[in-house]
Design goal:
This protein is of the alpha+beta class and about 500 residues long. It has three domains: about 5-195, Four Helix Bundle (Hemerythrin (Met), subunit A) (Up-down Bundle), CATH 1.20.120; about 250-325, Orthogonal Bundle (Helix Hairpins); about 340-485, Histidine kinase-like ATPase, C-terminal domain (Heat Shock Protein 90, 2-Layer Sandwich). It has 13 helices and seven strands. It has helices at about 5-65, 65-75, 75-100, 105-130, 135-220, 230-245, 245-295, 305-325, 340-350, 355-360, 380-395, 430-435, 455-465, and strands at about 340, 360-365, 375, 400-410, 415-425, 465-470, 480-485. The protein has a five-stranded mixed β-sheet with strand order 2-4-5-7-6. Strands 1-3 form a two-stranded antiparallel sheet. The longest helix has about 90 residues, at about 135-220. The protein is flat, with a radius of gyration of 43 Å.
């Protein structure tokens, strides 16, 4: 039978059976969930609600007990007023219970409760009338009989609750039965899937892995593959022999592809560096444009304009440094390390971005108890990191907002004593699905962004043996955390 049916048909048949059983199990499960949902809805929406209504009605009845006795003792009319309130509550709950009636048995029980209640309050009213007329003996005698009405009425309420208790019990029993049936069906489906899985493994091992092993042995001994049957195995055998015969040519083509790949990688590095350089130049150029715009408004050189010229000179020097790094891209970037308080870099960045922050309508608040201790850092590179983080925060807050920069010292297990700078904004935050990608090169959600700002910042902090991380909740802003190791400079 195995030789008469092709391997493809066998695999298709087993897979079709697996899919059918899985789908059938899913359909049965979904159908049973609907049944359980209807059952639970019937119990919760009808029986439980009716049971609760009956309990509240019973509670209203119990609350009426004792007021006439209190009135008999002190003749305070307030007891009768409270009795009237509870009678009104009982009637309201009786009507609510009546609205939940579903069958004749429940309807008759409610009618019986109502009839007995009318008799009860009528007799009680007669007791009150005797007490008001000063007929104490007649009132007491009738009052004792009224108690029998009360207990009978209480028993009727309990019987009505028993009706719904029984319905809830039956619903629970039905639910357990359905759960048992579902478990039985699921057990059969699991067993069938397991059996078909074992059969599929057997087919694959015997009719695929076995022939492949034989083909390998035959290729090693350079023997011809025996002709067995006109099926997929024969086609596989011919394909493997063709691959072995063309191995030499494939090796030559692989070498050529390797050379092409090396050249492509080199061009990719050049492109990445060019994009990084362009992104790094953008911030200084924007600052230069803003300053030139400020100077253009007045031809007279004031103190502010002199300051603008100084900033322009500083940024031009910054651009020259970036271009020089681009021309020397084949060498790793060299940091100009010197002792520096990270607080100084923060102040330099905020001073540089003063006009841009105003254009974004963003306020910056620095929380600092004292200047952070010195770390070994490149002032320009560290300032660039702060600038990138602040500019990104501004761009994320479309209608302005506030940026809080908090400085503190902290002890880390890996970095030991560290200086920590937290840059927080009140923008829309970063979705969790994007949080792990924002430091990857070329990843951006902006229409005109290059996706290099955060990756460059991450690289700079990493070269300082520090760490850059982000925490964020959607709709509640983002906080970028810079940690730089504090080392003894003595």
């Amino acid at each position: 039978m195995w030789t008469r049916i092709h391997l493809r048909i066998w695999i298709y048949m087993i897979l079709a059976a697996l899919v059918f059983i899985t789908l059938a199990g899913g359909v049965v499960t979904v159908w049973d969930t609907y049944r359980m949902e209807r059952l639970l809805s019937a119990v919760i929406d009808e029986d439980v609600a009716a049971f609760q209504a009956a309990e509240s009605m019973e509670a209203a009845l119990i609350n009426q007990k004792g007021f006439v006795s209190y009135y008999f003792l002190d003749r305070d009319p307030d007891w009768l007023r409270q009795l009237g309130d509870y009678r009104r509550i009982f009637k309201e709950r009786l009507e609510k219970t009546r609205a939940l009636v579903e069958n004749d048995r429940q309807r008759k029980a409610i009618e019986q409760i109502e009839s007995e209640y009318l008799s009860y309050i009528s007799a009680k009213d007669r007791v009150i009338a005797h007490y008001k007329a000063g007929e104490q003996k007649e009132g007491v005698t009738l009052h004792r009989k009224v108690r029998d009405h009360f207990f009978k009425l209480f028993d009727l309420c309990e019987e009505y609750k028993d009706i719904h208790r029984e319905r809830i019990r039956l619903a629970r029993k039905d639910g357990h039965a359905q759960a048992r049936n579902l478990r039985f069906i699921a057990g059969i489906a699991i067993f069938a899937d397991l059996s078909l899985g074992v059969l599929l493994v057997f087919v694959l091992v015997r009719h695929i892995l076995g022939p492949v092993r034989r083909l390998i042995r035959e290729a090693d001994t350079e023997k011809e593959v025996p002709q067995q049957s006109e099926d997929e195995i024969k086609a596989l055998s011919r394909s493997v022999r063709g691959l072995i015969e063309n191995a030499g040519q494939t090796h030559i083509e692989l070498e050529r592809s390797r050379e092409t790949l090396l050249q492509s990688e080199k061009m990719a590095i050049v492109g990445q560096l060019a994009a990084g350089t362009a992104h790094s130049i953008r911030n200084p150029l924007t600052s230069v444009k803003m300053r030139l715009f400020s100077l253009n408004r007045s031809l007279e050189l004031s103190d502010t304009q002199k300051e603008d010229f100084e900033v322009i000179s500083e940024e031009i020097r910054h651009i020259d440094t970036i271009v020089q790094n681009f021309l020397e891209f084949s060498r790793p970037p060299k940091l100009k390390i010197e002792p520096l308080s990270p607080s100084v870099a923060v102040d330099m960045a905020i001073q540089l971005l003063e006009h841009r922050l105003k254009s974004y309508h963003v306020d910056v608040r620095i929380i600092r108890e004292q200047m952070l201790p010195d770390v070994q850092a490149d002032p320009e590179q560290l300032k660039e990191v702060i600038v990138n983080l602040v500019v990104n925060a501004c761009e994320s807050m479309e209608k302005g907002g506030e940026i809080v920069i908090r400085e503190e010292e902290f002890f880390s297990e890996t970095l030991k004593q560290v200086a920590v700078i937290r840059v927080s904004d009140n923008g829309p935050g970063i979705p969790e699905s994007l949080r792990e990608k924002i430091f990857e090169p070329f990843f951006t959600t902006k229409d005109e962004g290059t996706g290099l700002g955060l990756s460059i910042a991450f690289r700079i902090i990493e070269e300082h043996q520090g760490w850059l991380d982000v925490t964020s909740e959607k709709g509640r802003g983002a906080t970028f955390v810079i940690m730089l190791p504090i080392r003894d400079h003595k």
